[in-house]
Write a structure and sequence with these properties.
The complex is a heterodimer of chains A (about 325) and B (about 500). Chain A is built from 14 helices and no strands. Chain A has about 325 residues and is an all-alpha fold. Chain A has one domain. In chain A, helix 12 packs across helix 13 and helix 13 runs antiparallel to helix 14. The longest helix of chain A has 28 residues. Chain A is globular. Chain B is an alpha/beta fold and about 500 residues long. Chain B folds into three domains: about 230 residues, Rossmann fold (3-Layer(aba) Sandwich); about 180 residues, P-loop containing nucleotide triphosphate hydrolases (Rossmann fold), CATH 3.40.50.300; about 60 residues, no CATH class. In chain B, the strands form six sheets. Chain B has a six-stranded mixed beta sheet, sandwiched between helices. A six-stranded mixed beta sheet of chain B has the order 16-19-20-13-21-22, with helices on both faces. In chain B, helix 4 packs across helix 5. Classes of the chains: A mainly alpha (about 325), B alpha/beta (about 500).
Chain lengths: ~325, ~500
Amino acid sequence: MSGDWPYRLREHRGTLLAFLAFVVMFAIYASNHPVGLNANVATTAANKGVLLAIVAMAQTLVVLTSGIDLSVGMVMVLANCLASAIVVGSPRSTALGVLAVLGVGCLCGAINGLIVIYGRLQPIVTTIATGAVYYGAALALRRVPGGDVNASLAEALTGQLPGGSVPASLALLLGVVLVVWLPFRHSATGRAAYAVGSSELAAYMSGVPIRRAKFVAYLLSGLLASIAGLFLTCITYSGEASAANGNTYTLYSIAAVVLGGVSLFGGSGSAIGAIFGALMFRTIGDLLFVFNLDPLWQPLFQGVVLSAAVCLGAVRLLRMRNRLDLYG
Amino acid sequence: MQGVAKRYGGVRALEGADLAIDAGRIHAVLGENGAGKSTLIKVMAGVVQPDAGQLLLDGRPVAFESPAAAHAAGIACIFQELSLIPDLSVADNVAISNPPRRFGLIDRRAQRRMAESALARAGAEDIHPLALVKDLSLSRRQMVEIAKALARRPRILILDEATSALTAADVMKIYSVLKRLRDEGLALVYISHRMHEIAELADDCTVFRNGRSVATYPAGTKSDREVVELMIGREYSAVFPPLAVRATPGDAPRLELRHLGWNARLDDVSLRLHAGEVIGLGGLDGQGQRELLLALFGVLRGTTGEVLIDGRRVAISGPAAAKRSDIGMALIPEDRKTEGLMLAMSVRDNLSFAALGRLSRVGVVDGAAEAEAVARMVRLLAIRSDGTDLPASSLSGGNQQKLVLAKWLMMAPRILLLNDPTRGIDVGTKQEIYALLRQLAEAGTAILFYSTDYDELVGCCDRVLVMYDGRVRRELAGAEITEHALISSALNIGDDARSARAAARP
């Protein structure tokens, strides 16, 4: 209908803003790149971006229910270590290995969900604890970095699509959106997850299946984190139980979610926004590179951009008429 | 539609409440604050479970363990703004309990049609189905709430003060919608304190008092006066200290309000409060009393009108400004657990918070002065605790409330605002609080006292302002303050009530 577009624009404002900001940044990056945007440059950039984008999607699912998942990075690391051991050999054993890795991811997410729902613990505490457990499991699997991965799978995922110069990782990302995110977004359970995040009380009063919504959100979060771990294995051809890596990805995923216009209070935003948030966050780092700045400035620069994004989100507080609402 | 009947007996906030609702009728439920109306609805909507008694639906006993179960049985409840999800669109909200699905996913087109027809049924075609609920005004949200209930095609529709946030035009639309629904054979339960609405809509009425249903009668068979008589009748459970007789002070009032307004919730409120005076705020719950106190305390933004302290105009920007010594205002909040105390901190720390400025020298808290002031307060209010180092959460409810009072008394306020301070505390503590208020007033504190307990207003106040819809509708003074007068002016049925009061007097 013709009168709909202002409302649609309003609903997807955060996602659209993240998309536009990314496009602008990427244009600056591509036009200033010393070599120009050839297939190899694009593929390397895409691989790094997609890895964070998938972790950010995992984070989004939980954040939408007004939770937070501090174990996503560790689930990724665990999946990485597991994949470096079992995603090898014949196509058949590789396929089984992939399924096992994804299964473990789902299991990790399910454990988080069950503890949050039935233990009634705060998500932040729960996932710090389970994150440590998942990291411990990863360490048990790989005391020292090593392992391998099926090379044809790795090349298929991290190279370029056959017959063109399009990075294969973008196809993977598209696949994840189509298979995981969109069905979730348009299911009754996904709607319930938004409702729970926006107002759990109102959701309860409306007879929304609160537990199922939270459980599915955590489960899919674990699944996505394990997909990221698998992809990481394909990039590095090895597994490493690195706590630093896990923590970095966890924190960056939260940054990407915020940049992507997803509300940390829950109930608003989309994983598509988080994807662009992640790509934007990666591009910020690369911008320093093309302008020949010392990489030491990268954390500072990323921090400044993140602070600016958070400040934009706080503008709504200025409109509150009852100061008690600020603390509610 | 078959005939619908329900019955309860013996629920705690409700005691032996009975209610029978028939299909094709609008059944009004009346009662004063705390008469059990809201508990009654919560039981019917599956929000709380009754401890005793039973619900019968079409003659068969049913039990709802959650709102979802009540929905499934065809009961839809319209609360005041409780069940909408702010970040979702109107259409999403209307369809939330059971969205139309195709291939397992939500069918957005079908949902859109469903929302449009529900909005049309509620007479709210002007609301765009894709608008986010959080962008709508309160009255529009209420219309969405009604559309949402209708979209469920309920057999029983419960409306709890559903029209309180609506504009007059919307109310007329809702009337015709409700009458149409009745003719379609729905059973409607209508809870309202607006007597003219009940006269306009209801077929049957039930009056609640003290958690019991005291009378059921066909609408129009009792006068407003008789209805008020039915609603009164609480037993006196407290004894009040005698009111001191004071000469009317001639000087400028300590606190004066001129035409105070805020959004649509407060409208043209004026009052004059003198030193040593206790003014009560009466009326039914949620008529703007709480907002009035918050506005005075500087919590609300965008208030209009003037506030004068000792005849001087002031702008109070927040609680920190309100407690400054030239204003000296303290607010005892309604929810002591979240707004009044830091439960995990010690009794002593809680007590000295509001007065830390007085107890410190160059920014450092003077421990000896603090200990002395705390000991004085604990004695004055007879706070029973096992030691002032224990957390505030270890005290009983009544003692916690005394602690909140003591905390603010530490700063020796000149104006004391109280928001229903005795709700949920025992009779003994209540008595102590009444005596303390009287003592403070005699020492010259000006007190503004909101209470949902009419006895308290009768027993404690020199004057009572009765609020309705954000305005002061009546002012009662001295012997005029009776439970009868309070209830009838709270219901805004002025003239009839006045004659009733005259008739009640010997």
